[in-house]
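Suppose a classmate hands you a notebook page containing two proteins, each written out with its sequence and a corresponding row of structure tokens. How would you begin to make sense of it? This section walks through that situation. The first entry is reproduced here exactly as it would appear on such a page.
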Amino acid sequence: MPEAAELFRAEHLTKHYGASRVVDDLTFALRAGECLGVIGPNGAGKTTTLRMCLGLAAPDSGTIDAFGRPLMAHLREAKQRIGVVAQFDSLDPDFTCRENLRVYGRYFGLPAQTIEARIPGLLDFASLQSKAEARPGELSGGMKRRLSLARALVNDPDLLLLDEPTTGLDPQARHLMWERLQALLQQGKAILLTTHFMDEAERLCDRLLVIDRGRKIAEGTPRGLIAEHLESDVVEVYGDGAIDVSERHAALADRVERSGETAFFYLRSPRALLEALAPRHDVRYLHRPANLEDLFLKLTGRQIRDES
């Protein structure tokens, strides 16, 4: 099978705000039909990176090529092929769902006949047929996010840039959004996604770019990164005796981390630890495979970060 065409490439991007280097020598590429996830703690530079990819902020150094041409030199043409879902909804509250789609389509200079022909399919894609004449204030959070996604598709883009598209949604709405995004990937569209939800990253992303303080610290497939950086098994121990367990049985694990009253044992052979825990009644424990959240915490730390 031939390799999919490369749609987007950023090389050695650097961006400063004052004395702070927000993005530091960042390089990545994206092909048709691929979802690249960008994950990192607050203040890691994710949103600034997306802004540069949209031409909303110019890099201090580095290059961005979109669809084989320099982005900034051909920004208008590139935007014709890009769809955007921002972190916060920017729907027009005075327009109905149908009108939001219609007006947004005009921004791209699309013929009225083309826009009107696309609107029913976009409403169907967003499961909003029955809400076509409702205004955003009458919609649930999940409906608003689906309308934002439908609006981003009005120009039939080849590339979607999504900044935390499911923030604030309940589980049912998140799963419906995932289903819609997977359908777009199957159509050959490319997605550049930022998210704080590790299950979302694992579900949607073909590759992950992990950044911290503006720098790339890891890149690869979700399962490949887990295999490269983590032990295969995790045993979470919590309860009154968790600290005692972490001290008494630390030698049974490759490493042990504590967070509050929970001890996390990372190990490749869990049998001895599970046998040691079985007779204890002062703790509860969960044995599970290592996951992306474990990867995220190992690479970026457990300490909470401020946005600044």
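The notebook's second entry, a different protein, reads as follows.
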Amino acid sequence: MHFLSSSRLSDFRTCPRLYYFRDVLGRHTIAVSAALAFGTLWHTVMELWWSGRDVGAYLTEHADEIDVTDAAKITALLKCYRAPREQFDVLAVEQEFSVKIESPDAGRTFYNYRLIGRLDLVLRKHGSETIWVCDHKTTSSEIIGFGPYWQGLQIDSQMGNYCLAIRALYGEESTGFIYDVVRKPGIRLCGTDEKQAALLGITSAEAYSLRCENEIRKSPECTYQWREHPRVEADLLDARRDLWQQVEMVRSCDNAGRYPRNCNSCSGRYGQCEYLDVCTGRASIQDDTLFRDKHEAAQGEDAA
């Protein structure tokens, strides 16, 4: 049985060879980018917050494992975070799913492939029958208006896949998704924070966190965006067709045992592809000083 998640399908669309290294062989880079580390930490914090658990206790307990500036930013973001939780019933937090992949046109099913994943948050608004899938996202991009960041999300297949999962799990016809987006504070720790820390008798990181908080409070809409998008039948039909065709391409590569390279993806939004040296013959995918197996990477992410 082959298990495909939205992230694995995204890897395949980015570059089939990257998909092969990361998702078929299960070899992950040891180094983790700062952007990914921050996003992982925010997702953990959101899981605790929406579950009603003590986020502060978690940050204190794991202080030695978290970058100091990341912890300061997270603390500031939490103080100003105002998601409309009172408007919703929380049905599930971090809910795992595994659903069949079916053709919307031919009535066929991929019996050896399944769509899997984890839903950040499943909500139902008071007085409504619609079930909402909420996805927490962090970015450094501009989130006011409908710029390139939002345009990219509009055609992202992830939330369509999640709405299909909701139908399979809950049997609900009325579904929608919510983007709960946080823009990371752009200011950096500097000498100003050291001076303020000395005046207040606190650490530089605490002074930096206060400065981030003050910046956020000036215009919170620049840092937080909560956007609800109802899904109509045409949207879900497109999602099912996209998913089916993508899995057909994956299956073609799996059957042939060949995963072509995409040189247009050697540089991306997170920098150079971590497998570029492998593709160009400068490194080996079996080099344990550069890569680790999937289960080891997962343990490291859990620790973060």
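A careful reader of the second entry would note: The mean pLDDT is 90.
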